[in-house]
Amino acid sequence: MDLGMTPRVKELAAKVRQMVSEEIEPLDAEFEAEVGKHPSGDRFQLTDRQLEILDTLKASARAKGLWNFWLTDSDKGQGLSTVEYAYLAEEMGKVGIAAEVFNCGAPDTGNMEVFERYGSPAHKERWLKPLLNGEIRSAYVMTEPGVASSDATNIALEARETAEGWVLNGEKYWISGAGDPRCAVYIIMAQTDPEAHKHARHSMFVLPADTPGIEILRPMHVFGHDDAPHGHMHLRFTNVHVAPEDLILGRGRGFEVAQGRLGPGRIHHCMRAIGQAEKALELFCKRAMTREAFKKKIVDLGANYDIIANCRMEIEMARLLCLKAAWMMDTQGTRVAQPWISQIKVVAPLMALKVVDEAMQVHGGTGISQDTPLAAMWTKIRTLRFADGPDAVHRRQVARAELRKYSNEKI
Amino acid sequence: MDLGMTPRVKELAAKVRQMVSEEIEPLDAEFEAEVGKHPSGDRFQLTDRQLEILDTLKASARAKGLWNFWLTDSDKGQGLSTVEYAYLAEEMGKVGIAAEVFNCGAPDTGNMEVFERYGSPAHKERWLKPLLNGEIRSAYVMTEPGVASSDATNIALEARETAEGWVLNGEKYWISGAGDPRCAVYIIMAQTDPEAHKHARHSMFVLPADTPGIEILRPMHVFGHDDAPHGHMHLRFTNVHVAPEDLILGRGRGFEVAQGRLGPGRIHHCMRAIGQAEKALELFCKRAMTREAFKKKIVDLGANYDIIANCRMEIEMARLLCLKAAWMMDTQGTRVAQPWISQIKVVAPLMALKVVDEAMQVHGGTGISQDTPLAAMWTKIRTLRFADGPDAVHRRQVARAELRKYSNEKI
Amino acid sequence: MDLGMTPRVKELAAKVRQMVSEEIEPLDAEFEAEVGKHPSGDRFQLTDRQLEILDTLKASARAKGLWNFWLTDSDKGQGLSTVEYAYLAEEMGKVGIAAEVFNCGAPDTGNMEVFERYGSPAHKERWLKPLLNGEIRSAYVMTEPGVASSDATNIALEARETAEGWVLNGEKYWISGAGDPRCAVYIIMAQTDPEAHKHARHSMFVLPADTPGIEILRPMHVFGHDDAPHGHMHLRFTNVHVAPEDLILGRGRGFEVAQGRLGPGRIHHCMRAIGQAEKALELFCKRAMTREAFKKKIVDLGANYDIIANCRMEIEMARLLCLKAAWMMDTQGTRVAQPWISQIKVVAPLMALKVVDEAMQVHGGTGISQDTPLAAMWTKIRTLRFADGPDAVHRRQVARAELRKYSNEKI
Amino acid sequence: MDLGMTPRVKELAAKVRQMVSEEIEPLDAEFEAEVGKHPSGDRFQLTDRQLEILDTLKASARAKGLWNFWLTDSDKGQGLSTVEYAYLAEEMGKVGIAAEVFNCGAPDTGNMEVFERYGSPAHKERWLKPLLNGEIRSAYVMTEPGVASSDATNIALEARETAEGWVLNGEKYWISGAGDPRCAVYIIMAQTDPEAHKHARHSMFVLPADTPGIEILRPMHVFGHDDAPHGHMHLRFTNVHVAPEDLILGRGRGFEVAQGRLGPGRIHHCMRAIGQAEKALELFCKRAMTREAFKKKIVDLGANYDIIANCRMEIEMARLLCLKAAWMMDTQGTRVAQPWISQIKVVAPLMALKVVDEAMQVHGGTGISQDTPLAAMWTKIRTLRFADGPDAVHRRQVARAELRKYSNEKI
Which residues does the UniProt record annotate as the domain Acyl-CoA dehydrogenase/oxidase N-terminal (chains A, B, C, D) (predicted)? Predict the structure, then answer.
């Protein structure tokens, strides 16, 4: 169980770290500052400068061979193991737009994986290719406003079969990335067979984003932010037609596709959260060592040594657990690795929230202001505690795996 | 130690609760939605509709005799005890603009207290009177960007004495309310005697907000929000003149004024945070009882019963501690009550954050979206953990009070 | 809601405190050291010196009028309210045998309450009188080895009706106090009607401890200790006869008696636990202020200020919650007060464990040794987390009370 | 960074696990039950049956080649890496006497390491050889009653140089194993040069346990237990002579020896604590799946799924951190590995306490009784939070290592 950095990854990680801090970080704030400056006033239109920033950075990354790291075991990607990728994703987590720059951003990576594994040759040509090139973006359309989406069997958007294929009706929300005008394709889960067994009710479809009948009702806010231009959109589907060949894998197999898709996506979020925790701890230490109160360095006041130690221990443990889950995926496959993925899915966001919270606290007002990245980290990481399944559901999975050791019954 | 509701307060609380839910809550969202709609495009200008909402609600509150509750033991206020006020403030905490509607909002209450206790007759006439009438607003100008303001002796904005009075030079930030054009007066702490004993270095001044030389550099952001039109402004003072009669209490007595001001302010924040926790727990229960997953009500899944019980116990204890601190203030004065104020200052925001966090989690994505008040509660309460002194400083005060029981030495 | 000390209690508390520290504490260790020194070698026989210690102290307490405080609202006791009693019980909690010295020890107080409320005149004469005089002791016989006693409806010891009364068969364990040879009477819960509704299956009986057919199988150990001479015995009942007049309240009403008995007992344990936490925090502070390491007082190292503050805040809150639960009992009765009793039943032991744990830690090895009372406190308080109902059951009660606010359904 | 089980260790672990459960566990309770049954009445004399149990088991272990695993990289041991040993120590932790059976018990392993690294040929012949053969036992004599031993520079037992060698005077306590009559040799830290630099004041000596002038004052109690026959003794040294050749490594180098000794010892305790946590979680699951209350399996009540999941995640993370610390020791040496050893030294006992606590709670009274091993685990693991350095000192080390990344100053 080698969880360390391979020589190959050591070299790549150094390059990624350098590019993140030297090229991407300086432009990240400018990218953010451009939001809302499109002549149309539409916050979900990218400005010319935003497009330029992204194109320049992507070109630079690609030129350096820093591209599509997430695509494990494949000719198209770098053939890195998930363990290896973890070390790189951690670095990318430290700055907002970095993951996209290396073409490793959500939800595209998960969607590309769906196309790669389950897509038809036509899907691969039309969608996978430009996605791998970073030319278009995509969205994964699953969560719905009316039901508890933590239980995916609740998904209710209707897909009715017709002579020409399928017709979709219903609403979806929290569709991340659907605000971006570059988002060209959706992978959408819909209910095709409401009477079937709960794991056979749904099917997964490919849907061009400009298909008629799709309406953006509003952007969902994340702690008051619309996260433009990416966005988390609330969509309405009215008689939206899907071609028969855009059904993925087969009717009633939507749940299967969803499960296959989610493993890697979940762990990638965790890797990046660990990177953010590292960055927050660095900011904590630097602030505490340079600021003074009551005639002492802040680091020498109160419980700060204990807090720093606790942060270090929690980061260290979360990283090791993340690496083990990655190693399980690499060696046993996503299905067997599931309880470990659930473990890190619970652990990493909670840990990162704690570290960021402490870092904010030591900064006082600065910690929640625009003068550090901590405030944005705190609210963004908070969303991971229910995105891709709330903590409670993942804890349940871990417990069931544990209890199965002692029982022949189904648990 | 009667911590219960007096008959008088039972009646007032019912009226406040009713007005908050029936009159204020419905208009609160509209008030927020108006932000940024001023013809000038300036988010820090109130629109006509905003002014109308506030005026209507204030008039209604005043007509009902629901006004200036915070002003204890005084002819000008309601003469309520702090314990009594706690039950009312809790209700006001549940909706954003409610405290202002009853003329009980920060930072005005603290500033009015300064005028009441330490102001000259001229100060009372010019500033206290319109503040008590809710005609103007005010700001308290203390925190500075360059120093750890958790240690108030660090305050460094220079006040130089001249023939005509004082001249101020320096920067301040996180000046809450200074964005609002109705903010007419500042109470400002400045360093007059850098060589004096650390508690005699500072003086407190009254300063009309439109005095020349005051420049708004930028609004500080709270988790990415500018909190317009209230705002938390970063200000620069360049050769700002203060009249000699606008020195409060006396040269070198700024620290004393600051201490006297902070006790009530701190506990008012706590009372409102408890109200928010109550509201969050209510939302938790209602959501968990009506939403289903895995064929069960969410409340019957996972650890939800335990979570609800823990929230109830923590709210109950925090409220009792808050009431005891209030009772100490009422019976022993703010100075003796200090360690209890510090206790509740630590306890209430942490408790409220925990309850709101759980309520968010049970709501899934809805919990962090614009569809519930939880997201705004979470980020706003978070600021209380360092506003008016970070947790660490208050814990230190509590510990020192404890250790003094066993020592004759100065601790 | 007056939760303060009345003048009467202020005086009594001072007397109790003085007697505990001056008379009882010095003899407590000697009492403990006598365990096992009976000539028979039987650890569950009191030595002459043990009897002498108890008799002397009890006589002293009674002579001072410090007796039967727990008996609220009655001619036989002191007529204190539960709130008043709380302040006295806290003092008694600080030393092992103190509660018994003031005739306020468990399980006698609960049993006396059963006799007082539900006993026949003959029961009162034969058992209640000598118990009130501290001449005999008693046991409450409920928990069983074979079933989860957290759900009292599981109780299975059989009581079969015969012509001469009842015949008991089965096992009971964790019968506290049944080891003491002075224990003269049992109150025992048995199943009389297995087919009845779950709350009507059981009946409560009075049983002289020397009735034939009762066998002590073994003492149950508490973290390896037999707690002699008190003991927590595992008993077997073989054809044990009970007279018809020794059925309490009525057939099938055992559950009702049990519920009535438990409220006060539960809160008394909590009051004493709070006293122990106070004592532990005192030991913490004194140790930390006098011991040195790394050239500093220990109190000035690490997070000790924060730990002390947290302990103080948690004690303060638990005490207030305990007093509120007591006030609810006094003003609304045990039944309405139930959710508050459950709250403090969860909160007080957890809080006391935390404070004692921190006090142990600052003492290093001394903290777990025979040189401080901390080790014994830690293990004894730990038992309170399931005695009289485990935390989980009490949390469930609190949550149900909360949810009932929002539902007409039975929860 | 291979943290997995090597094929060699997989095989050894299976053998150890089998021997622990099939041979050792059945005799462990009998060994305990024999304590105090020596004809002399002396609890610190082993009975014939105790000796027989140990001899039989040791012979069996040795015959199977399950011996001296701890001795890494050496001809005398098995040459296992620390990572490999971790998997075996975990198994040994599950039953009280198991570590001794495999000759892997504390404090002998640490003492053997001192002899191996720093001992003279005569030391190796006289003491190391029989220790490696499991024929004698040893004690490590460091902690003192009068000073905070968390700061080893406080150690004050006097070693005065004379013409014939050294003379020791002073007291030591918590000398684990010194109660056992088979304990033949002490390694003792004494102050030789009180005026020297704090890290050069002490020297380490070898001392036959039967040297005149050594007096056992009392056994220290661990939560009321004397842990006979092993014991944790309080010793007085009166003019105890040490031969000049029994000074280890050199005058003033005691601190160095102590540091070298402690790394492996600390991590071994952690490995065993992880094994205990695993066992506790197993007991938790089995109990919760077989016991019923309120018509449900206990596992389906309350927060039990969440608790089980949290336990699994915490065990998993602690094990990984322990393995990483072991790997650091293997690859970088004890000195560089120090911050990682400190990390796991804090993490493992806290984690194990939490898991054991939850397991106790789900067992109700049984959990703290003689009917499960949980009560003994809980109190024993608690001692690890200050043995070999309290948590606070280890957290301080971790924080200092962290801060050093950002500073050139000495921290």
Answer: 8-135
Nearest residue on chain D to B302, judged by CA atoms? D303
pLDDT at D73: 62
Q: Which of A158, A175, A176 is nearest to A166 (CA)?
A: A158
Task: Let me know if domain A7-106 sits in CATH 1.10.540.10.
Answer: yes
- Give the span between the Cα atoms of B77 and B80, in whole angstroms: 8
Helix, coil or strand: residue B212: coil
Give Cα C146 to chain centroid, integer Å: 23
Superfamily of domain D7-119: Acyl-CoA dehydrogenase/oxidase, N-terminal domain (1.10.540.10)
* C64 in contact with chain B, both atoms CB, cutoff 8 A: no
Tell me if A346 sits within 8 A of D313, measured CB to CB: yes
Domain with CATH 1.10.540.10 in chain C: 7-119
Instruction: Give the 3-state secondary structure of residue D81.
Output: coil
Contacts of D305 in chain B (CB under 8 A): 302-303
pLDDT of residue B154: 87
Of C174, C223, C375, the CB nearest to D375: C223
CATH 1.10.540.10 positions along chain A are 7-106
Q: If you ran DSSP here, which 8-state letter would residue C174 be given?
A: E
Band of residue C169 on the pLDDT scale cut at 50, 70, 90: very high
Q: pLDDT per position in chain D (411 positions), as tens?
A: 999 999 999 999 999 999 999 999 999 989 999 999 999 989 999 999 999 999 999 999 999 999 999 887 667 778 899 999 999 999 999 998 999 999 999 999 999 999 998 999 999 999 999 999 999 999 999 999 988 877 888 899 999 999 999 999 999 999 999 999 999 999 999 999 999 999 999 999 999 999 999 999 999 999 999 999 999 999 999 999 999 999 999 999 999 998 878 778 889 999 999 999 999 999 999 999 999 988 899 999 999 999 999 999 999 999 999 999 999 999 999 889 999 999 999 999 999 999 999 999 999 999 999 999 999 999 999 999 998 889 999 999 999 999 999 987 777
Q: What is the pLDDT of residues B246-300, one digit of tens each?
A: 999 999 999 999 887 877 888 999 999 999 999 999 999 999 999 998 889 999 9
- Of A297, A190, A295, the C-alpha closest to A235 is A190
Nearest chain C Cα to A305, which residue?
Answer: C302
Average pLDDT in chain D: 94
- Sequential DSSP letters for C363-391: HGGGGGSTTSSHHHHHHHHHHTTTTTS-H
Give the residue-averaged pLDDT of A44-65: 96
Q: Which of residues 181-220 of D touch C (CB under 8 A)?
A: 220
Q: CATH 1.20.140.10 region(s) of chain D?
A: 256-404
Mean pLDDT confidence for A295-315 = 96
Fold entry, domain A137-248: Butyryl-CoA Dehydrogenase, subunit A; domain 2 (2.40.110)
Length of chain A equals 411
Instruction: Dump the DSSP string for C316-361.
Output: HHHHHHHHHHHHHHHHH-HHHHHHHHHHHHHHHHHHHHHHHHHHHH
* pLDDT score recorded for residue A74: 63
Q: Does C408 touch chain B (CB under 8 A)?
A: no
Q: Residue B74: its pLDDT value, please?
A: 63
A146 touches A11 (CB < 8 A): no
Q: Name residue, tokens 């009581």.
A: C159
Is the CATH code 3.40.50.2000 the one for domain B256-404?
Answer: no
Reduced to 3 states (helix: H, G, I; strand: E, B; else coil), residue A73 is: coil
pLDDT one-digit tens code per residue, B61-83: 999 999 999 887 667 778 899 99
Whole-model pTM over 0.90: yes
Judged by CB atoms closer than 8 Å, whether chains meet at D385 and C225 is answered as no
CATH topology (fold) of D138-248: Butyryl-CoA Dehydrogenase, subunit A; domain 2 (2.40.110)
